[in-house]
Amino acid sequence: xxxxxxxxxxxxLTPANTLLIAANLAVFVLEARLGAGAGRELAHFVMVPxxxxxxxxVALETHVLATLITSMFLHANVLHVAGNMLYLFIFGxxxxxxxxxxxxxxxxxxxxxxxxxxxxxxxxxxxVAVIGASGAIAGVLGAYLALFPAARITTxxxxxxxxQFIKVPAIFYLLLWFAVQLYAGLxxxxxxxxxxxxxxWAHVGGFLFGVAAGPLLARRLPTPRRRR
Length: 228
Prior knowledge:
Blueprint: E1 2-6, H1 15-34, H2 38-41, H3 49-53, H4 58-70, H5 78-99, H6 101-122, H7 134-147, E2 152-159, E3 162-169, H8 170-188, E4 194-195, E5 198-199, H9 200-217
Antiparallel strand pairs: 1-2, 2-3, 4-5
Helix pairs in contact: 1-5, 1-6, 5-6, 5-7, 6-7, 6-9, 7-8, 7-9, 8-9
């Protein structure tokens, strides 16, 4: 099911969310311009779980810890960045409206860090580079579930050669999404968290952080006044 819109956002282009999407796209354009040399040029900005778990020395710690943030803005290919930005575009605005612009931006970055640390915790010896915004976006999805469980998500549902547009309850859509991530993470077993090139435990960790932190950071809704 591919999400197209939600029922809660009053506008689609909110400042912080739009800024994050623009930053991710700008970095991807830079990656594309680097061409075959992108891997070498950007090697210092990817997050490698083994490097984080084996930190020694203040200078090394500073550089390695920074990759928990820089890696969020790197993507492997067009489908990778397009899929991530679609989910951020659909689910981000409503969460930003409830948290506020600066609080949403901080929440997004912290969710990405937590997601990266979840990957490190599950595979501390892995030397496979981890990149992408999906862990931070998973945090946004978790916050959306906690804040708007009764929302409706308009999705595309391909059925053989037919395309159906349906509205799905957010609680169903997001719990199904989380169940898939959790199952894939558990099924990875001894092969580690990166199955099929996806850091499943980053999604799980980010989502759970969003569920817990979203309501704590959300601004209170105004109390409706009774008319006499």
